[in-house]
Design a protein that fits this description.
- This is Tetratricopeptide repeat protein 38.
- Belongs to the TTC38 family.
- Keywords: Repeat, TPR repeat.
- This protein has about 450 residues and is mainly alpha-helical.
- It folds into 3 domains: about 150 residues, Serine Threonine Protein Phosphatase 5, Tetratricopeptide repeat, CATH 1.25.40; about 100 residues, Tetratricopeptide repeat domain (Serine Threonine Protein Phosphatase 5, Tetratricopeptide repeat), CATH 1.25.40.10; about 160 residues, no CATH class.
- Helices cover about 70% and strands about 0% of the residues.
- It is built from 24 helices and no strands.
């Protein structure tokens, strides 16, 4: 069936300076539809969602290289599957490369294929270099911008994530499709480089244009989290819930942010209520170290134990399997990571596994076994490198807290003071201080 006319056909993509090598208008529109859902974090049911559009795209033009790039690329950046273990995914990457080599496609499209292939091998830094090469000549190529944004996030490359968007901003004009979503992307980079006021301002400007931009909402949620402006955060998430909850891909993560404010306030029941009603099996709740019984189902992590796509995922899987008392799974995860660290090749995450990934996993396991001194010994020297496992400051705070708890139980106070200096007036820090005093007086 023909796509809604709002999406760009062959001529429209050409006019925008981003020609696509296919003669099918339908394929062009479906590519646009998939890209739009990616930017909005949203399965649009009226279009058949991501899956419906991807299979329609295959049908419209099975040899359309950029169609393969976007559909296989999306599966890769979701980090839910590894080409090492998933033969279907690995062959989809090979098929894309073969198609690209057998057709006369544009230099930009060739670079897209190259970047996707590099990313599939875990060569994140090099993939980003190639996406940036595309953006130098084609600053309005949203796919290159979004893929780079996600990959920088997985590398904890905060400044790059910010500047990647800053560089292209002047080239975008308000009439261009998806223009307003640049605010959310830029805001997130500002936030992760601690420019909180500017991050909030930029995100709010985006929300004024597009109230349901869930990534901009997410950015504001982070600002209030990092500044420990808890009541502001609660009010913000609640007042805009109707806008952002339609973004099904990001909604449970935004609910996690909402729950974090309750945790900061010590209102664990309220946090768990959000968890039980909204988040269900969402893996980030594995990170509830805060004296709440960890609600973990191993079925979330079990199928992914051997993937090792990102260290960030691995550590969350590990917390979940420990919380569920699955010592076999935990052990296997650690050993798999140790194995990959021996011969990492180009895989950036596996290169870090030896120096950061493995010791951090060991520290989590030592903590779980009550060996707090050993846990501190492993974590303390890494505390300024934790950023390299990727994710956001808010997500990595779990490791600050882990180190603080381990240190408190092993007689080391200076870390609490350090956290207090970074987040003045955090109620959570205040409670930890009280507890530390009680433990040792």
């Amino acid at each position: 069936k023909m796509m809604a006319s709002s999406f760009r056909d062959c001529k429209a993509w050409r006019a925008g300076g981003l020609p696509l090598s296919t003669s099918s208008n339908e394929a062009c529109k479906l590519y646009d539809a998939i890209l739009t859902q990616f930017v909005k974090w949203r399965n649009d049911e009226t279009l058949g969602g991501f899956e419906g559009c991807i299979s329609a795209l295959q049908e419209a033009d099975p040899n359309f290289v950029m169609g393969h790039v976007i559909s296989t690329g999306l599966e890769l950046v979701s980090t839910t599957s590894s080409t090492r273990l998933n033969e279907r995914l690995a062959s989809a990457v090979r098929r894309t490369v073969e198609l690209a080599n057998s057709q006369d496609i544009s230099p930009r499209e060739k670079l897209h294929v190259k970047a996707m292939e590099l990313f599939s091998r875990g060569h994140f830094p090099k993939a980003c270099d190639v996406w940036e090469d595309i953006l130098v000549d084609h600053p309005t190529d949203m796919l290159a911008l979004k893929f780079a944004h996600d990959a920088y996030f997985y590398m904890g490359a905060q400044t790059q994530m910010r500047d990647s968007v800053a560089r292209v901003l002047p080239h975008w004009k308000p009439h261009m499709p998806l223009f307003s979503y640049l605010n959310g992307l830029y805001s997130f980079g500002l936030l992760e480089t601690r420019l909180y006021d500017q991050a909030e301002k930029v995100a709010m400007e985006g929300l004024a244009l597009t109230p349901d931009d869930a990534w901009a909402v997410h950015s504001v949620a982070h600002v209030y989290e990092m500044k420990a402006e808890v009541d502001k955060g609660l009010k913000f998430m609640e007042s805009r819930e109707k806008d952002w909850q339609v973004s099904d891909v990001l909604a449970s993560h935004n609910y996690w942010h909402w729950a974090l404010y309750f945790i900061e306030k010590g209102q664990y029941e309220a946090a768990l209520q959000i968890y039980d009603s909204q988040v269900g099996l969402h893996r980030e709740f594995a990170s509830f170290l805060n004296g709440i019984s960890v609600r973990c189902w191993v079925l979330v992590t079990q199928p992914h134990t051997d993937d090792h796509v990102t260290l960030f995922n691995d550590m969350h899987f590990l917390m979940a399997s420990l919380g569920a008392k699955e010592s076999g799974t935990s052990q296997r995860l650690l050993e798999g990571l140790q194995e990959l660290a021996k011969e990492p090749g180009d895989n950036q995450q596996h290169q870090l596994a030896g120096t950061i990934g493995v010791p951090m996993c060991q520290a989590i396991m030592e903590y779980d076994q009550g060996n707090y001194n050993r846990s501190v010994e492993l974590l303390y020297p890494l505390r300024y490198r934790v950023v390299e496992i990727g994710g956001s400051d808010a997500q990595r705070d779990i490791f600050n807290q882990l180190l603080i708890h381990a240190a408190m139980k092993s007689e080391n106070k200076c870390l609490l003071v350090e956290r207090d200096a970074m987040r003045p007036s955090s109620p959570l820090t205040e409670r930890l201080m009280q507890r530390a005093l009680a433990l040792h007086n």
